[in-house]
Amino acid sequence: MTVSTDEHSAADVIRVALVDDQVLVRSGFKMLIDSQPDLTVIAEAGSGREALQSPAILSADVILMDVRMPEMDGIEATEKLLSLPSVHGRPTPPRIVVLTTFDHDEYAFAAIQAGASGFLLKDVQPEDLLSGIRTVHTGNAVIAPSTTRRLLEHVSPLLSRNQACSDGVAELVSMLTPREYDVFVKVAEGKSNPEIAEELFLSMATVKTHVGRILSKLNARDRVHVVVIAYQAGVVSP
């Protein structure tokens, strides 16, 4: 892909890697992504194991990771990739977006727990896929309120299996102030900052401050992780 230096320098272009065992899926995503002046596909892999062995994959800014693959699935690959010393040595680790088919992939929840910055359904609209890549690159999470609730309903049995984990997150949640707790619940419901501001009669700046403090107190990576914690703690339920 050639990028005009008038619009985007090499440093501005978001480097994307595709990890999916279906060649046609990778080809379609590559064609779409490479059509954008600020995005480029730098590497592809057909399995999680292949991805971990590829320096090019590990150097990407954003990795689109399929959940169901042979040899090593997307959950294990996500967890192992984010634990690599070479990844920890980077100023900004690669952001991973899980690609899933909702009807079958209850594993998407576990992938988010493993460190993914969000998930998108494989039938996502092209503009939403592109927006999702840009969103996670800025450090935010890709999470759609409608699919969040449906997915968590599908995997809710997983949330009660580890009582020690639930007790631990409940203790963290207890450290929130009453107003932080209100914002926490809204985030867990999939509400955006503007929606939270409107519903709680707060300014956008105040909401952003509360969200930042919530992430810090809960040791949460992003808003997706906040949702996971909320369900683990029993603050909201499917």
UniProtKB/TrEMBL annotation:
InterPro entries in alphabetical order: CheY-like_superfamily, NreC/VraR/RcsB-like_REC, Sig_transdc_resp-reg_C-effctor, Sig_transdc_resp-reg_receiver, Tscrpt_reg_LuxR_C, WalR-like
Protein name per the record: DNA-binding NarL/FixJ family response regulator
Keyword entries, A-Z: DNA-binding, Phosphoprotein, Transcription, Transcription regulation
Modified residues (4-aspartylphosphate): 66
Protein source organism: Neomicrococcus lactis
Domain Response regulatory: 15-137
GO annotation terms (biological process): phosphorelay signal transduction system; regulation of DNA-templated transcription
GO function terms (MF aspect): DNA binding
Positions of the HTH luxR-type domain: 169-234
Superkingdom as given in the UniProt entry: Bacteria
